[in-house]
Amino acid sequence: MSFLAAFLLGPFSSIGRYRSLTFELSKREVLGRYRGASFGLLWSLLSPFLMLMVYTFAFGSVMKARWPQEAGINHRFSIILFIGLIVHGFFSECLIRAPTLITGNSTYVKRVVFPLEILPWPVMISALFHASMNLIVFALLTLALEGHLDWTLVWLPLVFLPLVLISLGVSWIFAALGVYVRDIGQVTGVLSTAMLFMSSALVPVNTLPAGLQRVFALNPLTFIIDQARLVALYQGVPDWVDLFWYSLGGLAFMFAGYSWFMATRRGFADVL
Q1: N or C: which end of the chain has fewer CB within 10 A?
Q2: Which of 90, 87, 188, 78 is nearest to 141 (CA)?
Q3: pLDDT tens-place values along the chain, 272 residues long
């Protein structure tokens, strides 16, 4: 296999070679969160609903936030808000878990044959599972409040694809950084919160001053949230051109993150 082919297949070859291991680690990620809880996996449905109630009360009732609607379209504020929270929640789970992927599994580092590079995959798969549960809650809530679902919701997996690539890149970068800079774990929580409040999850970007619109547009979540709302609520199809370039950029970022991880992993055992 040529060097180029090995490089291009690198991020995916390990998960293909260690499918069973990846599945078991993913299952542990999902079930471990609810181990000992009385309601078990039911919390994966209850948690997003409770979270939505808190945000809806805070922004809709207390702060009297309103979302500008197009003529003939009138979605409830809670439904519009929920889509943004689902997108952010997926990315946030990958970001916050990344710094401890290696330091929290130091025994794996000492095993020469263990493929450390697969550790971000179970976290990403777990985040996808919880995003799927959130979407089930979203669908049930939309049916209950508005009486219908738009068929364009089927485009949502394609909208999520570039964010999956970016999240993998972020996971590899921060997993490696977490070994050498232990304080990075304290930063990711703040960074996650900043990315929530500086995205279109909570405020419509087109109502902001031009300068702030440019800042919000730099947030990688803004585009995904806007496209997710477009297909889930407004019966639209994704902006295929922008989605293509966004996916290409996400792919490049994923390869950059993977390359950084593989270049730095040689020093993990010495530091740990």
Answers
A1: N
A2: 78
A3: 555 655 567 677 777 788 888 888 888 888 777 776 666 667 777 777 777 777 777 665 655 566 665 545 566 777 888 888 899 999 999 999 999 999 888 888 776 678 888 999 999 999 999 898 888 888 888 888 777 888 888 999 999 999 999 999 999 999 999 999 888 888 998 999 999 989 888 888 888 888 888 889 899 999 999 999 999 888 889 999 999 999 999 999 999 999 999 899 888 877 76
CA separation for the pair 259, 173 (Å, rounded):
9
Beta-carbon count within 10 A of 171 CB: 26
User: Side chain identity at 213, as an amino acid letter?
Assistant: Q
- Domain total of the chain: 1
Tokens coding 80: 């519009």
Q: 3-state secondary structure string, 159-173?
A: HHHHHHHHHHHHHHH
The verdict on residue 4 lying in a domain is: no
Could you please report the per-residue DSSP string of 45-59? Answer: HHHHHHHHHHHIIII
Q: What is the identity of the amino acid at 8?
A: L
Q: Is 1 part of any domain?
A: no
Tell me the residue range of the domain where 156 lies: 13-271
Residue 33 lies in a domain: yes
Measure Cα distances from 92 to 70, 153, 180, 190 in Å: 30, 22, 21, 10
**Amino acid identity of 25?**
L
- Domain for residue 8, yes or no? no
